[in-house]
Design a protein that fits this description.
Helix content is 44%, strand content 24%. The chain is an alpha+beta fold. The strands form 7 sheets. Strands 1, 2, 3, 4, 5 and 6 form a 6-stranded antiparallel β-sheet that branches. Strands 12-11-15-14-13 form a 5-stranded antiparallel β-sheet, with helices on both faces. The protein has a 5-stranded antiparallel β-sheet with strand order 17-16-20-19-18, with helices on both faces. Helix 1 crosses helix 6, helix 16 packs antiparallel against helix 17 and helix 19 packs antiparallel against helix 21.
Length: 903
């Protein structure tokens, strides 16, 4: 070939190899320019994001500080209104300080610039009686002048920390009573007034007007000064500014990395082009080696047309499936595929016709009729309308996978079905496994927990130290066998108590790879246990605080199972475990019980056993004893007894009864004394009549002109008058004599006749007419006749006294008796006197209170006691026609018998 032709052929060949190099260089320069543009834009976006975050943080801090101002303002208003005392101030201030980590003190400074109250109570910076410093005086006076919250200049406290004070004036009207001072820790402001995510991204600093840094939220110095933003902080103003600087993230890529990658990749591409030339030269050699590999490969290699028919197969088909490679060309691949896998295989073949490589598994038939699992990797060549496939025998692996899958599914089902949370950590303390029960317990998903290290997401912030110490004990293998309790935090912030049981995590080779923990939620059991303990303590405190002796004894064995302090102080502190009769407890005899407690079963409970008064056989003291059958904590039937010492009450009641009897007798004597002259006049009439009749009889007998019938009539009249006088004397004697109350069935009409017989004497003397209005067929009442006569006589005489100034035409006193329901009789004394005022009516039955000039004030009180002794009721009402109505009720004889039987 001539040299000119050779040169002409080499020129296109040179441009053929040069063009890729030029394209690579142009591409590299374009990519470098694009990277520079993207990095510039990203830096600007990051700066804008820092500015937005700082503004958001400033607004958050301002809202928190305004909330504190409102709280201090409320304290100032309550203090001005004098509704706040030191204790309430301490409680409210301490609670607010506890909820606001940035606050260190809340103080009330009086108008004389002296500290009055300070919280918390254990503070050493603001003590009651301290005076304000010169730095504190200016904002204090400024708050007094402007009448609103004023912030002072930040300064260093005696403890060395920078603080900021806000002064809220306390005004009552126009008067100035001082100021409520809230003291902020500037370090606490940057730590607690912004959320945790902000502190993780930025180094936050508070600077003063001179640019000096007062406090930072982190001591880390690895910050990116190019991503910084500063904004004034108002309130408090005073030149304070908030500056945030982003931390350098460990995962951030260096800015020079894209440039290095582009240059490096360009060099690699150029180098690859150079290597391509050498590759073409070796291609022929490689094709020879490919044919050798095709024939010697242990995997099945084949060439298949787009129609699914084999074109060429390697000898491995015979080794694996038993089909001779010479017999397969021309037959279809689907002919040896299992019928259940034909559809899936056909779908994969269709994908091959579109030029997409596929990888799938199916079962193929062997020459002996059995089937083996094969994994196919097939790549199409559309230009040749051929596909090249590689098949690998995975029958053994599929059998192992199936067994492993079944075992894994069984284990997974077990793990998901248990209610106990499971958590596994590696030897470095990183979570490597959690089950669904643990995820439900803490509220975090598996993706959020797997791979996380200490502090774990479910650790409460307030118990980081305890949780970390437990983790260190676990990793060191010193966790107690009984596990440990730990408080954990759910994702929604809810706290719960859990118990962790730790055990080593051992792999198949016997090596420890971590620690397995089973976690049980004990919040509810712990709450129930605490509630039971508190209830038990309250029960014992209440029972031991009773003056009554309380005991619980087994109904069958009589063993004392429980006794309170009062019981032990009476019967000995070793009473528990002994028998009731062995410690001489006052109790009824077996026959006095309503039912025999020894024969009771659980189905008969609860049951009242006894309620009555008993006397101690040794000390002689009286007790009111109540016994009740109930069920004990272990299910057995027990007797619960309550014995109340009523000795003093019995003695007092006896003395009171004796005094009342004396008072009643005295009252009767006083009544008879007041009626003495009237009774003398009343007795004078029958005595004079007797004397006259007897004198007449004597005169007639002496004259000799008497007749028997005249003498007999006169003597009969004298006898009648003598009987009348004797009846009056007997009635007076019975009325005034001392006797024990004797209740019996009496007719109320007979009682009224006797009582009105006494009262009628006084009534005639003062010109008052007594009218008895007694209903017919009244049942007998169950009462003491003399006591009821005393009541009636007292009420009638009160009515007569009340009508002393009444007109003669209206001087009428009515005594009415009628049925009051089916089981009582009502007796009413109705006068037409001056009546009783509302104030006097409220105090009428008070001892020693009287509306009479010469009265003692005991009559109505005694009357009410007598009526209540008879199970009745004495009331007073105004008479619509003028005057007063005193009425009382008495039970009938039948009603009293029923009450006695019920008792």
């Amino acid at each position: 070939m001539p040299d000119s032709n050779k040169t002409a052929m080499q020129t296109p060949l040179r441009w053929y190899w040069t063009a890729p190099y030029v394209a690579v260089v142009v591409f590299a320069l374009s990519m470098l320019a694009l990277v520079w543009l993207l990095q510039t834009r990203e830096l600007e976006n990051q700066r804008n994001a820092v500015a937005r975050d700082v503004q958001w943080a400033e607004q958050t801090m301002r809202l928190h500080m305004q909330g504190t101002e409102e709280f201090l303002g409320q304290l100032a208003r309550d203090l001005a209104n004098e509704t706040l005392d030191p204790d309430a101030f301490q409680v409210r201030a301490n609670q607010h300080i506890a909820n606001s980590g940035e606050l260190v003190n809340i103080t009330w400074v009086g108008a004389d610039e002296v500290v009055r109250w300070s919280a918390p109570f254990d503070t050493t910076d603001w003590l009651a009686g301290d005076a304000l410093t010169q730095v504190q005086t200016f904002p204090f006076n400024r708050a007094r002048e402007v009448g609103r919250p004023i912030y002072g200049e930040p300064y260093k406290s005696p403890r060395g920390g920078m603080v900021l004070e806000v002064y809220v004036p306390v005004r009552h009207g126009r008067g100035f009573r001082g100021a409520i001072v809230g003291v902020y820790s500037i370090e606490g402001m940057v730590r607690y007034l912004v959320p945790g995510w902000f502190a993780e991204k930025y180094r936050l600093a508070l600077d003063n007007v001179r640019g000096e840094t007062l406090a930072v939220n982190s001591a880390l110095r690895d910050t990116d000064e190019t991503l910084s933003f500063q904004i004034p902080l108002d309130p408090p103003g005073n030149g304070l500014s908030l500056r945030a600087t982003a931390f350098r993230t460990s995962g951030a890529l260096p800015q020079a990395l894209p440039t290095v990658l582009i240059v490096g990749l360009s060099v690699i591409v150029l180098w690859s082009l150079w290597m391509l030339r050498n590759h073409v030269l070796r291609r022929v050699q490689v094709e020879k080696e490919r044919d050798r590999l095709f024939n010697l490969s242990l995997d099945m290699l084949c060439v298949v047309g787009f129609d699914g028919a084999f074109r060429r197969c390697n000898p491995a088909f015979e080794h694996i499936l038993g089909h001779a490679p010479e017999a397969l060309p021309g037959s279809a691949l689907l002919d040896i595929v299992h019928r259940d896998d034909v559809a899936a295989t056909l779908e994969q073949m269709r994908r091959l016709t579109s030029g997409e490589p596929v990888k799938f598994e199916n079962r193929c038939r062997c020459a002996d009729g059995s089937y083996k699992w094969l994994v196919w990797s097939i790549n199409p060549v559309r230009e040749e309308k051929l596909v090249y496939g590689v098949a690998h025998d995975i029958t053994g692996r599929k059998a192992a996978e199936e067994a492993l899958r079944a075992e894994s599914a069984f284990r997974k089902a077990m793990e998901e079905s248990v209610l106990t949370g499971l958590r596994a950590i590696d030897l470095s303390g990183r979570i490597i496994y959690v089950n669904s029960a643990f995820c439900r317990m803490v509220g975090f998903s598996e993706q959020e927990l797997i791979g996380s290290g200490a502090p774990f997401p479910y650790w409460p912030t307030e118990e980081f130290d305890i949780c970390r110490r437990n983790l260190e004990l676990t990793l060191a293998g010193r966790a107690p066998p009984s596990g440990f309790e730990m408080r954990i935090r759910r994702k929604n912030g809810e706290r719960l108590d859990a118990r962790f049981y730790l055990s080593p995590l051992i792999d198949l080779e016997g090596r420890q790879t971590g620690w397995m923990a089973s976690v049980t939620d004990i919040t509810e059991p712990k709450r129930v246990r605490a509630a039971l303990e508190a209830a038990h303590e309250r029960f014992e405190a209440v029972i031991d605080g009773l003056d009554a002796a309380v005991f619980v004894a087994d109904a069958r064995t009589d063993e004392i199972l429980f006794a309170n302090r009062a019981f032990k102080s009476i019967h000995g502190f070793d009473a528990v475990g002994r028998t009731v009769r062995g410690v001489a407890v006052p109790q009824p005899e077996r026959g006095d019980y309503r039912v025999d407690p020894r024969g009771l079963t659980v189905g008969d409970l609860p049951r009242e056993l006894f309620d009555g008064e008993l006397q101690h056989p040794l000390s002689g003291r009286w007790y009111h004893v109540r016994e009740h059958a109930t069920r004990w904590v272990d299910g057995r039937v027990v007797r619960m007894g309550i014995a109340t010492d009523i000795t003093d009450r019995k003695q007092t009641a006896e003395v009171s009864r004796q005094q009342e009897e004396r008072l009643q007798r005295t009252a009767r004597l006083i009544t008879m004394g007041e009626m003495a002259s009237t009774l003398a006049h009343e007795l004078n009439q029958p005595l004079s009549a007797i004397a006259n009749y007897c004198a007449g009889c004597v005169t007639r007998i002496q004259g000799g002109g008497w007749k028997q019938e005249d003498i007999l009539g006169a003597m009969q009249k004298a006898s009648f008058q003598a009987e009348r006088a004797g009846k009056i004397i007997r009635r007076i004697r019975e009325f005034v004599k001392k006797s024990e109350p004797r209740r019996s069935a009496v007719q109320i009409s007979d009682v009224l006749d006797d009582a009105l017989g006494f009262a009628d004497i006084d009534a005639r003397r003062v010109g008052i007419r007594i009218v008895a209005d007694v209903a017919h067929d009244l049942p007998a009442v169950y009462a003491d006749r003399i006591m009821i006569e005393q009541v009636l006589l007292n009420l009638v005489r009160n009515g007569l006294d009340a009508m002393a100034d009444t007109l003669a035409s209206e001087r009428e006193l009515t005594v009415r008796a009628r049925a009051f329901g089916p089981h009582a009789v009502e007796v009413a004394v109705i006068d037409r006197g001056h009546g009783i005022s509302e104030d006097d009516r409220m105090r009428l039955f008070t001892p020693f209170y009287t509306t009479k000039a010469e009265g003692m004030g005991m009559g109505l009180n005694i009357c009410r006691s007598i009526i209540e002794f008879h199970d009745g009721r004495l009331v007073v009402d105004a008479n619509p026609e003028g005057g007063t109505i005193f009425s009382f009720t008495l039970p009938t004889e039948a009603a009293s018998e029923r009450i006695a039987r019920r008792a």
